[in-house]
């Protein structure tokens, strides 16, 4: 893997995005020595030109695929609380499948002190939430600069996250669905009061029944894992919200595949699909309830971003070798 680490200062549109804070920033240098400075673009009417407000620069770890071409898809992955972009890049096996399929991966850094990075996901998490960090505005601006930076198709930008990063992904789906092609969360819960997404989105909710920090059935996580966290929604309730929001019919399919139970609502508005992927205890490896399952691959597969094996064939793979 060859990653590039950039410090990207972006701007938000003050009248369109709440929670912006003015600051003066300079672009930092990436590991390759290039200085990156990008400006978010947003459509504005001639009658009303909102002011541009700078947001602080943050590291974003990118893995562009080899032989980058235009109109690529991009997946932004948000790390868990207390983690980092570097750790997220090594988790869930995302990089191999994304590289083979030509998908741009981006791993932005959360807010707060370096030893306790988190996201302001609304009702969660850590110092980022306590300080009301403008994470939603910053991520929205990052999404807007991706097409210019890597030639990404603006209609093929997906957002995913684990734990606190998953909760932040859900907040973005609530507040900025118009910027996203789909959302996936791993071991997270929806806890955004007044969530009202602007459009129906494909949603994949992955949750282990052995997840102790974000309990599958909701409620309060046991101490010390749940310290500072409020009781949260269950995986089922979180997924059902998106099914209702996307006006899915009551009919859904349910099937078991190895360590996983898939429950899928496919008849939703605008062709969206909502799926709950529940993992059993057998997916746990070395105490990690997700390490024994190809979560990263399944996220890419769900959004049709896995490698095309044959010309003209649907851009998905039935299962990883050995899965069946």
Give a structural overview.
By secondary structure, this protein is an alpha/beta fold. Helices cover 20% and strands 21% of the residues. 48% of the residues are buried. The two termini are 28 Å apart. It has a ten-stranded mixed beta sheet with strand order 1-4-6-5-7-8-9-12-11-10, sandwiched between helices. Strands 2-3 form a two-stranded antiparallel sheet.
CATH architecture descriptor name = 3-Layer(aba) Sandwich
Distance between the termini: 28 Å
Helix content: 10-25%
- Quaternary status of these chains? single chain
Over all CA atoms, what is the radius of gyration? 19 Å
What is the count of distinct domains?
1
- In percent terms, what proportion of residues is strand? 15-25%
Q: Which fold does the CATH topology refer to?
A: Rossmann fold
Give the low-confidence spans. Answer: 10-54, 308-324
Number of helices: 7
Q: Tell me about the biggest sheet?
A: 10 strands, mixed
Q: Please tell me what the overall shape is.
A: globular
């Amino acid at each position: 893997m060859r990653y590039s680490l950039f410090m990207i200062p972006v701007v938000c549109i003050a009248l369109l995005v709440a929670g912006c804070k003015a600051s003066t920033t300079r672009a930092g240098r990436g590991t390759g020595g290039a200085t990156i400075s990008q400006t978010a673009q947003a459509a504005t009417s001639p009658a009303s030109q909102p002011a541009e407000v700078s947001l602080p620069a943050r590291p974003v770890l990118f893995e562009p695929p080899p032989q980058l071409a235009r109109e690529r898809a991009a997946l932004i992955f948000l790390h868990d609380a207390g983690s980092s972009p570097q750790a997220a890049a090594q988790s869930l096996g995302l990089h191999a499948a994304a590289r083979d399929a030509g998908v741009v991966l981006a791993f932005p850094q959360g807010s707060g002190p370096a030893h306790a990075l988190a996201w302001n996901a609304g009702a969660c998490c850590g110092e980022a939430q306590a300080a009301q960090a403008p994470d939603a505005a910053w991520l929205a601006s990052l999404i807007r600069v991706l097409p210019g930076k890597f030639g990404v198709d603006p209609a093929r930008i997906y957002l995913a996250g684990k734990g606190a990063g998953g909760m932040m992904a859900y907040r973005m789906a609530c507040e900025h669905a118009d910027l996203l092609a789909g959302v996936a969360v791993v071991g997270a819960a929806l806890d955004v009061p007044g969530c009202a997404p602007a459009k129906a989105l494909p949603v994949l909710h992955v949750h282990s029944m052995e997840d102790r920090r974000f309990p599958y059935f909701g409620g309060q996580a046991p101490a010390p894992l749940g310290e500072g966290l409020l009781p949260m929604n269950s995986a089922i309730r979180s997924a059902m919200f998106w099914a209702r929001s996307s006006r899915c019919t009551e009919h859904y399919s349910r099937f078991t595949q190895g360590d996983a139970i898939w429950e899928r609502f496919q008849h939703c508005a605008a062709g969206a699909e909502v799926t709950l992927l529940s993992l059993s205890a057998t997916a746990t490896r070395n105490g990690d309830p997700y390490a024994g399952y190809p979560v990263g691959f399944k996220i890419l597969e769900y959004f049709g971003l896995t490698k095309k094996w044959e010309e003209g064939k649907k851009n998905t793979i039935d299962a990883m070798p050995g899965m069946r």
